[in-house]
Amino acid sequence: MRVKAALAREIGKLTIEEVELDPPKADEVLVRMRAAGVCHSDLHTYRGELRAVPPLVLGHEGAGTVEAVGENVTRVQPGDRVLINWLPACETCPTCLSGRHNLCERLPGTTFRALLLDGTSRLRTLDGLTLKHYLSVATMAEYAVIHEDSAIPIPGDVPFEVAAIIGCAVATGVGAVLNTAQARAGRPAAVIGAGGVGLSAIQGCQLVGCHPIIAVDLMESKLAFARRMGATHTVNASETDAVDALRDLTGGGPEYVFDSVGSAVTISQALGSARPGGTAVIIGLHATQIEVPISPGELVLRNKRLLGSFVGSIRPRVDLPMLVELYRAGRLQLDDMITKRYPLDDLPQAFHDMEAGTIARGVLVFGDER
Ligand SMILES: [Zn+2]
Ligand SMILES: [Zn+2]
Fold first, then answer.
1. pTM
2. Which of 50, 77, 235, 312 fits a 20 to 30 Å CA distance from 247?
3. Angle 345-224-282 (CA atoms, 0-180°, nearest 5)?
4. Ligand nearest to the CA of 284
């Protein structure tokens, strides 16, 4: 079938065009997309800065309705509303069996290379160029063929646009607090970077009862979003020294510092500002090639923990439905996180707004239904 999609034919070349999508094979599902979150990873990918390289159809956050299923599909059926899970863990490899589904051994050879789980593709341009499926899902298209492990059913009262952001930004930010840091109530926390992931980490800190919750960013517009999401204090790191400010506001440093940026500067701010015995959690992936000097004094003499967190250390089929339920219970303010909606054709504008810091989370919407 012909579907409109956002794709990168080559590095740095973003186009919105009709492409050919083959029907689902065994274990696969055809989803009519209703919403797709706009994430920095999509931007970095079409620019060729991450592991999956063009030609591919972009998009990894999404939600929609199941239109058709291939042979052997048992978990969903046509008509189901689903959240797209771009981390389709096998749940049988030794790493999954150890509880680390986010590090599943089948993902590096398939999902992270933008292939479906059988190692192939169902997408091509009208002039015959085979297109990969970004993170096995390629949600920035009117329809997507995905493995059934990438389809998580959701209740009818969860808006598609909310479900779309739960699968990546929310899982990454809230998961870092709940799973990676296992943060405790009453302890001071800081979040560096107030984009979609940082705002989600702030909400995670609020969920577990950290206090105070301090947001750090370079842009005043993003700090305003952070206050709305539960930050009790904000620090503009373009005006003041973030480490000094965090120590002053907490009487010696936060117990937990979540770095949603992942640059050399922010990683050292996170480790440097955590109080003695505290924990710095690195969530963001600004660049994979940088080297960061780490002070053994901070780690040993001050007994700090430096932790990495990949997609919030989640087990997708356990944690994504849990996050959906926390939203339904009013414990996560996800409606407020979506500050702008765009048609698929306006993806370049959405990327522009994301980089300019004028939106909290932007979502592409397909059709009228939310
Ligand atoms: Zn994402
Ligand atoms: Zn696995």
1. 0.94
2. 312
3. 80
4. 1
